[in-house]
Amino acid sequence: MILTETILATLIAGVLGWVGKGWLQAMRSRDNRHGVDRKVDAELEQHWTKTTLELVDTLRVELTEAKKELSALRPMESRLAHFEEALDHIHALLSSDTEAEKAAAERRARAFMRRMRGDEAVGQERQVAQRKISIKRAVKDIEQKEGL
Questions:
Q1: pTM over 0.90, yes/no
Q2: Three-point CA angle 133, 135, 140, nearest 5°
Q3: What is the pLDDT of residues 41-86, one digit of tens each?
Q4: Which residues have C-beta within 8 Å of that of residue 105, sequence separation ≥ 6?
Q5: Between vectors from CA 19 to CA 18 and to CA 21, what angle results, nearest 5°?
Q6: Cα–Cα distances in Å, from 116 out to 33, 58, 75, 82, 133?
Q7: 89 with 109: CB under 8 angstroms?
Q8: H-type helices in 96-119, by residue range?
Q9: Per-residue confidence (pLDDT) for residue 42, from 0 to 100
Q10: φ, ψ of residue 79 in degrees (nearest 5)
Q11: DSSP class per residue in 23-45
């Protein structure tokens, strides 16, 4: 019986040793795989960073070119806005129901036509002159407050 117990204990110890050795090898293998994964992740991150920076540089060039094209189109955009405003005035004139609405629509349409004929330049000159007067008054008020 003692021989059976000794053989059984030896078998159990051998199996446990074999299982333990297999477990340790599996852990080492796993650690090696994770080390490789971390290295691959670092390389991918460097690649993505480089690609992202290249993309940003490319987009900056595209943005600069788009701004140049847009500046060329701004006068056209302004003219199209004038056409749209003219259509709105025509619609208001045609759809007015009461005499007061018709008079208001006609007044706004005439003001629009004056602006489009160049009378707007006179108005802009007046605004510039008014700004200069306002600046002089503001400076005078500041000087008076400092003198108190």
A1: no
A2: 95
A3: 777 777 777 777 788 788 888 988 888 888 887 777 777 888 888 8
A4: 89, 92, 93, 96
A5: 65
A6: 75, 42, 14, 8, 27
A7: yes
A8: 99-114
A9: 72
A10: -65, -40
A11: HHHHHHHHHHHHHHHHHHHHHHH
How many Å apart are CA 123 and CA 111, to the nearest integer?
12
d(CA 137, CA 145): 12
- pLDDT, residue 103, reads 92
Burial code of 25-38, b = ≥16 C-beta within 10 A, e = fewer?
eeeeeeeeeeeeee
Sign of the four-CA dihedral 105, 110, 115, 120: negative
Q: How confident is the model at residue 104 (pLDDT cuts 50, 70, 90)?
A: very high
Structure tokens at 62: 């595209």
